Amino acid sequence: MPRFRKTNRSTRIRAPPRVSLEMREPHEIVGSNEWVAVRNQRAFLEGRAISTGSSGITRNDMAKNTTIKQVEQGSNSMLVDNILNFIDETEWAQIEGGEHNNRWINPKHYPNRIFETGLIKETSTEEIHYFPLSSTEEDPKGLAMRYQMIGGAGQYCTVVPNTWRKYISPATIKREKRHRKKNHSRRLANAEMEQAENEL
Question: Virtual CA dihedral for 74, 77, 82, 88, nearest 10 degrees?
């Protein structure tokens, strides 16, 4: 007999044969609509709550969906707040009316330029907010914003500022991390030595 088998061969032979799905009545197949209906009838007669079974949305799905919606609304509101703060910090002014309605100007940094407008809808309040939109080539000072794809084959995007970031190679990141770790362990060793000297 194999090592991990729990029952011997004679017990398995004596076990009743399993009934195939074709030989079962529809209400005996777990998960079928008929099975759900019979289960709900029994629950109703016994005074228990009736569940929707395999059809409809479950409690877990409802909790998951509300949690996801709350997180999305929170992150969307934070993004809108960051956009509005960035607009205020970089001193943008929006043109209202006329040929250039809802476009943006920045007289301090770009006195002779008019920038296009982008928009974002805040999901919690259904309010639409506008922001200055430009590519990095047309905005060398990095004061406007752009849409950046974040996944889903272009279905999902976010709004990011055109600020310039210093390029750091992966080797530099590793080197800095190693340097910080080494300095941290040196500081710990020095602190332990000073503590031991003070105790003496």
Answer: -160
Q: Mark 6-28 as b/e (b = at least 16 C-beta within 10 Å).
A: eeeeeeeeeeeeeeeeeeeeeee
Residues 6-46: pLDDT tens digits? 666 666 666 666 666 667 777 777 777 888 888 888 877 77
132/83 Cα distance (integer angstroms): 10
Confidence at residue 161, expressed as pLDDT on a 0 to 100 scale? 86
Q: What mean pLDDT comes out for the span 144-149? A: 86
pLDDT band at residue 49 using 50, 70 and 90 as cut-offs: low
* CA dist 180 → 158, 160, 171 (Å): 33, 30, 14
Beta bridge partners of residue 147, listed in sequence order: 159
Q: Which residues contact 130 (CB under 8 A, 6 or more apart)?
A: 94, 102, 104, 117, 118, 119
- Distance in angstroms (rounded) separating the CA atoms of residues 119 and 114: 16
Contacts (Cβ under 8 Å, ≥6 apart) of 195:
none
Separation in Å, CA 144 to CA 110, 116, 123, 190: 11, 10, 23, 48
Q: Which residue has the tokens 């992966």?
A: 170
Strand pairing category for 104-106 and 127-133: unpaired
**H or E segment to which residue 65 belongs:** helix 59-89
Name residue, tokens 């910090």.
Answer: 89
Residues in the chain: 200
